Write the structure tokens for this entry.
Amino acid sequence: MRLLALALVSFAAAARAGDAGDALRTLHAAGLERSYVLHAPALWPGTDLPLVVVLHGSGGSAGAIEAQTGFSEEADWRGFAVAYPEATALYQRRWNAGVCCGAADDVAFLRALVDDAAAVLPIDRRRVFAAGLSNGGMMAYRLACEAGDTFAAVGVVAGALVTPGCAPAAPVSVVHLHGTRDDFVPLAGGPGALGISYPTTERAIDFWIERDGCDPTPRIESPNPDVTRRRYACGGGTGVELWEIERGKHTWPVASRRSRLLPPPPKKLDATGVLWQFFAAHPRPG
């Protein structure tokens, strides 16, 4: 309890005026000054906190992805911390996910972010996760490839595995959500609306099935008529899932309780809730 009290005092000192749950933090990583917003939950569970690092898409921002996903709302309800990092403006606010985009050492930055968050909040290092949209999802895959010792699981929405020579040092649980009508990062691979060609989502799932020692035959479910969920049983407490959203486009699916300013979501699918439930079930083994 003394550690918790000290963490709360430190966090309150760093919080921005008028936003008691959030603190804007800066750090230096790989020669650059970087920033992120750290959100502490309104309802503290009384134990060390899981941490979800949420990565915006190309040209996005911490504030935009927080509003789009509602992850802070989910954190307040479920009792976990959330970090919203900012990609560097040097590369048009895009993450260096491998073949795309820029040359910033974003893996070093996001490792440093976890250390920084753990310095002000009691973070459970076995329950650190990354989630991302589009280019942010591609960066989440890179973290699974190169920082599996830090991130227990990743969640990818409308992204692709574009990290060359992906060779994770440890098994990482993976959940991937993708719309069948995504014009920017096509589910079936190939060139998107911007002329950039991507590998198939199936290729990424097959990679993680093999890497995590999963049964290649999935359990197939339909949570609702617009969604197909494929779950793969894996060894060592890891898991792999693919959610295909019928007629879904290049966006973060949100339930009706999310912002009414966003486009209507696919029927009854809340990507934020799906990702958190997957993360909660897949801490680092051991």
